[in-house]
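Batch manifest, entry 17 of 40.
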Amino acid sequence: MKQFWIFLTLFFCSPLMFACDENCKRTKAETDNNIKFASYLNAKYCATTTKGFMLQEIKSLQAYRDKQLPTAHRGGAKNISHFITQRKEWLSECDKYLELTGQGRVFYDKETTTKIITTMTSVADELKKLMLRPQNPAENLSFVIAPAAEQFDLLFKQLEEHKLMLQRKGQL
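Output type: structure tokens
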């Protein structure tokens, strides 16, 4: 009987003793890939950063696209370009962390993550082109801003599709 209880205890406790928590996954990923993650990186930070971008910060981008982009003002384009580039870097850093620690991807899967981050790069690039373009008062601004507007719209569409997928799965 004593052996039975010992066996039962070992059987139920073993998975808990050998389970790998986030710190274990982090250490394993750092060792396996010969990198050192920033101390603030963890799954909760990455989830907060991603959801913040999808739910809150996207509103600022939508407001810029609707109100400021049609004016082709260079200062606004520069600020928004930096904003998008910064968020892209944060999301890419989180994606790398989540992928290497085996905790998924920042936008659920590789395909969606790649599409959204690539579109963010395209938006920032179009805004940089807008900033560097010589001003011509006789120019029709709707043609000047069209490429940036298209990239913004694509980004909004991709993020909306991702939000809907998360809502269907009950994760948002």
